[in-house]
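User: Um, what's this?
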Amino acid sequence: MDPRYLTVIGACLTQFMVIGILFSFGLFFKELQTEFGWSRTLLSGANALAFFMMGVLAMLGGNLTDRFGPRVVLGVSGVGFGIGYMLLSQVSAPWQMYLLFGTLIGLGLGFHDVVTLSTIARWFEARRGIMTAIAKVGTALGQMSIPPLTAVLILAFGWKTAMMSLGVAAAILLLIAALLMQRPPAPVVAPGQPVEPDGGFAQIRRSRVFWTLCAIQFLFFPSLMTLPLHLPVYGMDMGMTRPQAALMLSVIGAASIAGRLAVGGLVDKIGGRNGYLLCFSALIIGLVAFLTVSNLTLLMVFVGIYGFGHGGFFTVVSPTIAEYFGMRALGAAFGTVLFFGTLGGSVGPILAGLAFDLFSSYMPAFAVLLVFACLGVVLVMTLSRPGNPALSTT
């Protein structure tokens, strides 16, 4: 089979397992609260720590991928992620949970996105957007299928067995996924053929557009990390059953498939700037609804609208960075942009949990996320067209 498409399959499977399992963690909140008395702020903080480590380790993962290729990087991090979830089933103190989320689980999360998507961008120069979208469909499928499975496992066997089962499955399947990933060949440039504006990461760091993309990531990523974690328990607070709350994540996953494929295909035609604006529109509509809608059926509709933007955001970033800055330092540039996103993403879940613990409501958190989204739109509007101006120094 063509190594390009084996790589897409490996990337898709990686996305499926890592994000599907991680976004199921919110379903364990009530069990952990009941057994240990831990607050939602404490539980959210562990998940947020993993997302912070995602940003820190994404920069390392990007550089390692640029140097050594994706297979070894994903193999080590994927097995580590699975072992981390196995050990999570045995925790009895908050420091143990935080240690696992900050090391093994954070390692898997930190490497999964930057390694898979930068590798795909190198393989598919003309179809970066749509092939990135296909890989990110794995994330949506994971969000659709793993949370309901997790809910069933918890109800049937208890939270410890559920976590152990997820960890074993992750270690096996992520290792298989890593073995499918292949390093793309170095590009061959014919004499006299013009090269893309690819001056290396040192030059990229001097670009205003690069730092604008970092700021945009910082502003939308808190929503993407906070809402899937807290919406299930928010739904249960509003009267949903556990399966109905898990269905919210499935709705996000299903809608995000449409968002990933639609935005991925459009980015190749309309560019990253317009792709960002489309995603922000869906995010803002969803957040306004979460602040105002109390009907559970109608709420599911707006969860789907949010899910479209959620999926689109995960597709648009890597092709946009490649569109502006080329291929040579894509891993390092992508990893740095992800780092800024996880700075915001790691704080968002904690503040949402704190808002609930203080006010018995998620409304203050939803309002702050809405303000962030509006600021993100303003920054997107300042982006220049790709080309040499994007590489001009600040």
Summary: The chain has a mean pLDDT of 83.
